[in-house]
Protein 1
Amino acid sequence: MLNNDVLRSVRFSLDMSDAKVAEIIRLSGGEVDTGEVKALLKKDDEGGHRLCSDEVLAHFLNGLVIFLRGNDQDKPLRPIELPLTNNMVLKKLRVAFELREDDILAMLRAAGFTVSKPELSAVFRKPGSKNYRACGDQLLRNFLKGLSQTRRGPGPARSGSIKQQNGSPPAGRTS
């Protein structure tokens, strides 16, 4: 799956501004400005579109973990892992959103994609394991779709963001 699609989808799910995306990338040591983020978020056929590198997406995913879960000041920043695979993207999103296996299965069902528990657990195994399974584009795409549906709702664009400036969920919502 294209890194730009992952970045756009997570940004949409959390209703983030371009500046917030740049801030999250910088949380893990990445170097981007808001103008670069705008180019990364443009569609392929739009002028000024720029491909998102594995390095930038890895910094975004590590920064997302820090943004959503906090940072332990006593420990150094985790290094990014390259090359980035769909399995790694799914693992980072699982950690960032503090999702359990049942949560992921529910998101996939919400997106109309059915996968069994053993199939899903195989995606989270280490690549050398005999039960390891590569995460395909379709699984990752449907997970991101389910994430958007659970975070924003299935309807058209809604007003309000998931996180307020202080990082707490808006009144009446849980995250």
Note: Confidence is low (pLDDT under 50) at residues 157-175.
Protein 2
Amino acid sequence: MKRHVDFLALLYLIWGGLFLLVGIAGFALSAGAAAIVSSTGLVQKGASLAAGITAITLAVVAALAVVWAALHLWAGSQLRRAVPWARLIALGLAVINIVLLPFGTALGIYACWVLLTDEGRRLFEPAAVSGA
């Protein structure tokens, strides 16, 4: 089961890396929309308002993606160390990942399977961590 936990940790790190890329791209798009707002060309008032709303929305979504990425990167690194509370954090993230079709669903189900089995649970008990 240790192999599954290590593989799950790797998947969490990859998933976090992908969301980090999404966050960076979202911030770049937000900057582009903000540039439209600040331009003094033939942009009409309505287009400037729409670009402003778009810039704010993209920045918020990008910030959420970066936070989601940081949580996954942190949980993946702690899963590799078999830290007991990392199992609970990873399970919480897995439940939310289930709604992110299709890859988040697969990751969430796999995480639940690995972390909820008796063997997986034993890997995160304090006696198992200190004895390893």
Note: The chain has one domain: 2-123.
Protein 3
Amino acid sequence: MAEPSQLQLRHIGPARFGPYLAAGQGDATAAALHYHWNAQLSAALWIDLGHTEVALRNALNERMQHRHLERGRPGHWLDDPTRELGKAGVPGGRHAQPYLDIQRARERVQRRRERVTPDRIVSETLIGLWHQLVSRRQMFLWPDLAAAFPGAPNRRQDTIGELVTSIRDLGNRIVHRHQLLDLPVAGRHEDLCTLARYLDPELEQWIIEHSTVAGILEQRPGS
């Protein structure tokens, strides 16, 4: 790779380029190699994260709707009139974070002038909503949501909650274009695959068969 030009460095920015320069031991060409590798790794992880996140939100949406109907509530859980998703299970009103997340997803559908349906709203939600639903803050939901993970070794909330936290944090780093040089990426990818396995062992196998993450990790500059 040719040494990075002043144009490239200006658009990357010295603060953002700093960790890569450190990884390259002060050599700009080696730093550029790390920068490019980081981008490739981020892209590969993003694909695997996407498969897992879509499966997660579909599974949890199904369980939430099942719970909703079991309690004799009309319509869809996304329109829940009980407003129960507040802190620690206390009704939180329209300002509780899960409802804000749902409303923002609804607005994204509306801005595209599409018909607002539960499926379209779910497709616009971010990982933060689903992370909240399996968190200790919404522990009262867990007995109903545990069935979304038939491959899990137990029905403990933290078995799932910790994995969702891991992939949420990884996704946030990638979406903000942060560097992954100091992150135990192999472990985070294993968390992703483990969560997929808990949802469906066949899903995990499919992700692994199509993933390029392991190969890119082996190509880290200087390794």
Note: DSSP finds eleven helices and no strands in the chain.
